[in-house]
Amino acid sequence: MNRLPLLAAGSVLLAGLALNVAADASVQSARFNPLRVAIVASTSQSSFLGAVDVDVTNTSNRTVRMPAWQLPSQFLQSDVFSITRDGRDVAYEGPMIKRGLPQAADFVVLRPGETVRTSVDLSAFYDLSSSGEYTVTYKAPLQHASLSGGEMLMTANGLPMTAQSAPLKLWVDGTDQLAGTRTLQAQAKPSAGATVVNGVSYKSCSTTQISTAGSAVNAARNYSENAKGYLNGGTVGARYTTWFGAYTSSRYSTARQHFVNIDNAIDQSGGQVTINCGCNQSYYAYVYPTRPYEIFVCKAFWSAPLTGTDSKGGTLIHEMSHFNVTAGTDDHVYGQSGAKSLASSNPDQALDNADNHEYFAENNPSQK
To answer: pTM, whole model, 2 decimals?
Structure first.
């Protein structure tokens, strides 16, 4: 197996988002980002290419408390790497998860000066099958992260700081890649097949779950049809600007096409849409963006209202937006407050954020 040398090692870059929205005066933000991130080619996994070591260091004299999914892990639960090959974006193939507010058990603590090192096999979560020069950057938004004094790791303008490395350049021979696992195998029950009810496929679902999820699909169809109609009508009211920010014809066209695609996808009635009830995790749902149209629904989904904010119907819109064939959205921030701030400060990124699509569709409270 051939191995070509590392071209350049990553170094440290502290990053925050450049924003223009005022922060909530009741929330104190940190004066600087205490997290230093370094990324190098892995020395612990020599049997294949595509592995990196990521060091995250707390450079401050205060404890940092942050959700675990914002740190690198051997099994990625979000798209925390930005990877390009020969200047083109590389597809993320791991799970995209809709989360609620983090609970105490979701947080990890980095003590002053502490470094966490993790080796990540990127080929298990990103498409490294083509040979070429890859540029890899670790880039995780620090929503809900804080210092021991209570200061949030957000900019003075109100959105999360970012834990970010400098770019690492690697030459990867795609023929040497080993197939990695891209599934949450421990989190979904095995299924021998699917049951099709009213044109929707169901896996690992009880009769009660099929009935409940079927109602959620209908609610999502109503949401997507309404959102598509709003945008096809050319309306630019508070509903649009709240969730997608200042109007430009280009951004509006993008939003309109996203909901045309989402509506077409959720309206399929030949079993293409699959609801998988096998997830036993605490979050709402997840999908694999390169595997339409299977949606894994989890514990928070079942306790959510059918419609309204963070509803069952809205969750399906959120997840449908993640598929690369619909809107290819990411999860830059979660929650209505974060989504509103993102729309005000960075409309382009709001158009790439799944929760902004969900809240635009749910339209709760109602806006015109």
So the answer is: 0.85
